[in-house]
Design a protein that fits this description.
Number of strands: 0
Structural class: mainly alpha
Largest sheet: none
Distance between the termini: 42 Å
Strand content: under 5%
Number of helices: 5
Order of helices and strands: HHHHH
Length: 208
């Protein structure tokens, strides 16, 4: 007698990875939103709201908010960087059709497809955090302007410099992962080693 159908493990793993990925992006966006709120309402009101922010209800709402914001910032970042992504793609694929066909061929090799999915996840996190670090830098500066503390100009300049450097670092990481993904996709779908019988390959990535 056939037992109950078990959930498809790869699909469940992919859904879990996507949830975590969006949440990682959303936490940064939510933090920037909180800093902006602090800048708008000022120190006195922030102190009054602090006990409420530490409640379990606030934590649950923050988790849901982070997930929603993660989806929004992921889509916004994708739209903003699409022109750059398309220029990178044209270095390796003559048309969108050629790229789509290569993706289909790679899907026939589960090991390579899984590695490509992991690499795309890293790319999307870098893409989202490119925008997160920029907004975090701006909102942190705005929040600090509402408070009086020693060496504020120096700290503001330091936070701004580090934030912009981190933003650039995430952008460069996104660009490198994207370019490497296209190059690996070409290598893995145009050589004999990209067959199910020989799955061992150097880990690569594929742009979504």
């Amino acid at each position: 007698m056939t037992g109950p159908t078990q959930p498809e493990t790869p699909a469940l793993a992919a859904a879990t990875a996507m949830f975590v990925e969006v949440l990682v992006i959303g936490i940064g966006t939510l933090t920037a939103a909180v800093l902006l709120l602090v800048a708008l309402i000022g120190p006195a009101t922030t102190a009054k709201l602090a006990p409420v922010a530490g409640s379990s209800a606030a934590a649950g709402a923050a988790l849901a908010g982070a997930y929603a914001l993660g989806i929004l910032i992921d889509r916004a970042a994708d739209a903003a960087l699409t022109p750059h992504r398309r220029r990178l793609r044209t270095r390796f694929f003559a048309s969108n059709t050629a790229y789509a066909q290569a993706r289909l061929r790679l899907a026939d090799v589960p090991v390579l497809a899984a590695r490509a999915d992991y690499a795309r996840s890293r790319m999307r996190i870098c893409r989202g955090w490119t925008f997160n670090t920029l907004t975090l830098t701006l909102t942190a500066d705005l929040a600090m302007l509402r408070y009086s503390f020693e060496h504020r100009p120096l700290i503001l300049c330091t936070v701004t410099a580090l934030g912009l450097a981190t933003t650039f670092g995430f952008y460069r990481s996104w660009r490198a992962l994207t370019e490497t993904g296209y190059r690996k996709l070409v290598e893995q779908t145009t050589t004999p080693t990209a067959s199910p019988s020989v799955p061992a390959q150097t880990p690569g990535s594929v742009q979504s």
